[in-house]
Specification:
The protein is mostly helical.
């Protein structure tokens, strides 16, 4: 669920920046990726209340996101970016989404223990 939210938002942000940039020529694949990741985001949102709020599961997810961010942005295995100068935006938005999910997840854990 957390991954669906993070990667749904991230892909729409990155492709949205490309689609809205002057001179871009988005094709069917770009629009399909936006539509499918909006669906991924919606799926994560729908299932957000179904996720068991176990600290161990949440901790494992955060370790995964941090390892994935490290591999993507510091080892260079990130997905193809449609704009040549988009690396910085893509990296910082991914790291920011990891932080947002971290703090949001912490609040979910706190609210479930009350």
């Amino acid at each position: 669920m957390l991954g669906s939210l993070k990667y749904g938002v991230w892909t729409v942000l990155v492709l949205g920046q490309y689609i809205l940039s002057p001179g871009s020529q988005p094709d069917g694949q770009d629009w399909m990726l936006v539509a499918s990741h909006l669906g991924l985001l919606a799926e994560g949102w729908v299932f957000r209340r179904q996720l068991p709020r176990l600290p161990s599961m949440y901790g494992t997810a955060m370790i995964w996101f941090l390892a994935n961010d490290y591999a993507d942005w510091f080892l260079g295995v990130h997905p193809r970016l449609p704009l040549p100068g988009e690396f910085s935006f893509a990296m910082w938005s991914s790291l920011a989404l990891t932080l947002i999910i971290y703090f949001w997840g912490r609040s979910l854990l706190r609210s479930s223990t009350r």
